[in-house]
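Internal ticket - ligand job 348, WQD:
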Amino acid sequence: MRNILITGGTGYIGSHTCLPLLKGGYKLTIIDSNVNSTPTSIERIKKILKNNFSENQISFFKGDIRDKPFLENIFSNAIKENNPVEAVIHFAGLKSVSESIEKPLLYWENNVFGSICLIDIMTKYECRNIVFSSSASIYGNTSFEPILETSEIKPCTPYGYTKVAIENILASIFKSSKNSWRIANLRYFNPIGAHESGFIGENPLDTPNNLFPIICRVANGKMNELQIFGKDWPTIDGTGIRDYIHIMDLADAHYAALEFLFRNKPQILNLNVGTGNGTSVLELVNKFMKVNKCNVPYRFTEKRLGDLPFIVANNTQVTSILKWKPKRNIEQMCIDGWKWQQKNSNGY
Ligand code: NAD
Ligand code: WQD
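stdout (structure tokens):
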């Protein structure tokens, strides 16, 4: 079984990605500081898989990627056990745009310095395959066209800058080591929803500030109302348009990226991972209420600082290179996300 290190593997995207990887027969070494997650997600993954995995396929170690001795132990123990880490899927990072504006140094330290520590130890142990969690927030899109990977890189928050910095570090490592690395920077658009079982899902430990978890909390009465930021954007109904992607489609994209890297020569890929379809805030809220037969009271408020009207992926690259396609529509995202919320109204 090929051993894959999953940093940030108990978090939202990491936990969902474990499923296709385990089904695909990989061994997973999961590390997480649990600054924004709990290891309970691993128990839930096992519950979903029932008997269709072996216990030695998953190990979890609590620790921080900035702790180099901790990382060294992971890599050296894997060698001692005759199962070296062959690739890393690097999810670990802080992801709140607003917190990054308040505490930029925390974001540079955690995300960028943490990634440097990881890449350093990977280099030392000759593990040169990495799938990295990048973000659509690196683009400074001001047009109404779907965004290409070659579009202007112009983040407007410290969070976005940390993603650009890590992509740049990976690009220089790639160049410096005579092209021995296999790197996939997956630039996610807006992942939402949950695994169809409702056993795992998004579990923000702090107050959420992304639209979908807020909709879920308003729907089950944990929050009073949704504030819709702006009603006069130049869009079909005046509200902001985003490219929402089902979390399990995003998980499958990681599986496809990893397999692609293993099958192909060293290279560096930058891929937009989105559906290519735009949905407005009002469309999402209305769809959520309709398919789930529930109520989401909302009120229009001022625009949020730094928001953009239209962020949708041109996903031609990812679909043609990885032979991956998103399969689940907005209805499914709403149904699965609501199922998770109802089954776990206080999180894990
Ligand atoms: P998440 O917070 O649920 O998961 C991130 C995990 O990383 C958490 O479990 C957290 O405890 C862990 N972590 C953070 N810093 C760490 C450190 N220094 N050492 C070890 N573990 C650490 O978030 P997510 O939504 O699953 O996001 C995963 C990755 O994808 C992040 O890098 C995020 O920036 C990126 N991303 C997320 C989105 C999104 O909308 N969710 C979009 C684009 C990119
Ligand atoms: C979506 C739409 C808001 C909350 C952010 C990051 C991005 C990625 C995903 C990590 C916008 C509107 C929101 C609310 C609202 N994360 N909205 N009321 O801003 O597209 O992307 O999360 O990498 O990098 O920037 O996502 O969910 O915050 O907003 O009206 O209470 O919902 O204005 O149009 P965003 P979001």
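Auto-summary: Residues 3-193+245-276+314-322 form a domain with the Rossmann fold fold (CATH 3.40.50.720). The mean pLDDT is 97.
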